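Posting this for the archive.
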Amino acid sequence: MKKTEEQEFSNSLLNLILLESSSLLSIIGSLLIIVSYLLYKDIRTPSRHIIVCMSISDLVYSTVNFLDAYAKSPNHDVYSDLCVLSSFMGSTAILWSFFWAVALSIFLNVLIVQKDPVFADTLIHKVFHPVCWLIPLIINVFALCFNKLGNTFDFVAPGWCWIEIKLNDVTGKVENRGDAIFWMTLNYKGIEILTYLTIALMYLRIKCHLKDKIKNFENSERKMSTFVSPKSVQAAKTTDRKLIFIPIMLVLLRIWGTIRYILFIIQSKDGDMVHLRMSLADKAFLCLQTVGDNLIGAVNCVLFCFLTPKVWNHLKESMSNMKSKLCCNKKQEIILDPDEKTKLISQSM
């Protein structure tokens, strides 16, 4: 079958560079979050535990997409098998990430608004771990068993595999349109939209709670409120700013794939998808999705490592120690021991 214009542009040098670079940054960022959690005991809080679970999910997803670009073999049978495998792993990982993002918002809501740290900690091991790991896995096991995973012809997933789309060789129409849309909705997009709504509601509730507490403190003549010191108020304001940043960045990074999903539903209704021409906007959406879907690990690293003072101080200290050790090793190599000096003098005479 002739390649679609979506495939041609997805496999272009520009999109491959965007895919590989954003995936690599996300891999590095996710690894940094995980390694910092393992190295520094004083940051091993329950919320950081959830962030690490998110990072594991993002690490798997970005790694699969990074390798997927190299898995496109001329042998159709080989690529078909690799495509199904990468689709299963990638789809499962992205759902893990969404579920853990929702879990983080619920955890913070229970911890900050309801002020029940014991219940919040209980949720992590008794609810979040079983639900967040198993439900995405079950969804994709069913998709795999019913042969729903495979090549999307880059219509909705630019450069990687997801839900299989079957195109008619003659008319160019999508033969399994209804079935493909159903599985796309169940196995990513529907859960993604629910994630947006849930996180927005949870963080809005937390933000309103924090604003009320800050306002009560600042308006109180005796400065008596839940936050007992100006330092606590400053910490609350910092948390407030971060809580705005999290849902906004999630939407900004992921919304482009949702737009392309909606466009696919509209365009595939009666149109010839094989000979469909891409507009400049279509190409822009594709590039933005390529970057956004794969960059989430790097953004989380900036937010939860570089913009978190305790973690950033640990990282700076570790880098400083490494630099000192390297400098010491170089100095030791330069400084000769007395025996070597004697040998050099005797050789020169």
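Strands lie at 149-150, 162-163. The chain has two domains: 5-307, 312-348.
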